[in-house]
Amino acid sequence: EVQLVESGGGLVQPGGSLRLSCAASGFTFRNYWMTWVRQAPGKGLEWVANINQDGSEQYNVDSVKGRFTISRDNAKSSLFLQMNSLRSEDTAVYYCARDGSPDYWGQGTLVTVSS
Amino acid sequence: SYELTQPPSVSVSPGQTARIACSGDALPGQHAFWYQQKPGQAPVLVIYQDTERPSGIPERFSGSSSGTTVTLTISGVQPEDEAEYYCQSADSSGHHFVFGGGTKVTVL
């Protein structure tokens, strides 16, 4: 059974940093693109970033360029999102998902940016 | 930046057919995917690569594509189909992805 479990969310002040993690199991992690998607409270889904199988390609939405970095550790079947210079508009539930157009999703971790 | 456009809401009576259109300039060259999301839950994939249905998704869910528009059809809508539905695809580069704004399906 495919499982994706996010962690690392919480309350952070504007300008602060946070690192999200996603532990994957139930499939061969190194064979798949991985994706982060977020959803602000009461809003729709927003694609944030994705990364290819060996980590050599990463892409992200314009609104997080230069602030967020996606990475992975295939030996530990883990996906990460380093978030710096956080803004109030980054407040959202962040989902880890398998593949570029995701077929499996985690349950999400809430990030709140507020003073 | 690239956008996918879908109607904000669709209302349908039980047993009737709901159709949700999603339009985007790059859709003729990029596959579309559809997700169902119920309140407080993670999204669930209901259609992939325009027309394919994942295992475990009821046959009443189907997808079609024509030019710059893809359509999710729910035939014989059930009360449990009430949810938000999102289309998703990539821009012409194939590297940047986007979701439509979501369509709230209300079962009357």
Quick overview:
The complex is a heterodimer of chains A (about 120) and B (about 110). Chain A has about 120 residues and is mostly beta strands. In chain A, about 0% of the residues lie in helices and about 50% in strands.
Written description of the protein model:
- The complex is a heterodimer of chains A (115) and B (108).
- Chain A is built from no helices and 11 strands.
- Chain A is mainly beta.
- The mean pLDDT of chain A is 97.
- By secondary structure, chain B is mostly beta strands.
- Helix content of chain B is 0%, strand content 44%.
- Chain B is built from no helices and 9 strands.
- In chain B, 35% of the residues are buried.
- The interface between A and B is medium-sized, with 21 and 24 residues.
Percent of residues in helices of chain A: under 10%
Sequence stretches where pLDDT stays below 50 over 5 or more residues of chain A: none
Helix share of residues of chain B?
A: under 10%
Largest interface: A-B, 21 and 24 residues
Q: How many beta-strand runs of chain B?
A: 9
Tell me the overall shape of chain B.
globular
What portion of residues of chain A belong to β-strands?
over 45%
Distance between the termini of chain A: 40 Å
Q: Which terms would index this structure?
A:
heterodimer; A: mainly beta; seven-stranded mixed β-sheet; four-stranded antiparallel β-sheet; B: 108 residues; mainly beta; six-stranded mixed β-sheet; three-stranded antiparallel β-sheet; globular
Describe the SSE topology.
The complex is a heterodimer of chains A (115) and B (108).
Chain A: E1 3-7, E2 10-12, E3 18-25, E4 34-39, E5 45-51, E6 58-60, E7 68-73, E8 78-83, E9 92-98, E10 104-105, E11 109-113
Parallel strand pairs in A: 2-11
Antiparallel strand pairs in A: 1-3, 3-8, 4-5, 4-9, 5-6, 7-8, 9-10, 9-11
Chain B: E1 9-12, E2 18-23, E3 33-37, E4 44-47, E5 61-66, E6 69-74, E7 83-90, E8 97-99, E9 103-107
Parallel strand pairs in B: 1-9
Antiparallel strand pairs in B: 2-6, 3-4, 3-7, 5-6, 7-8, 7-9
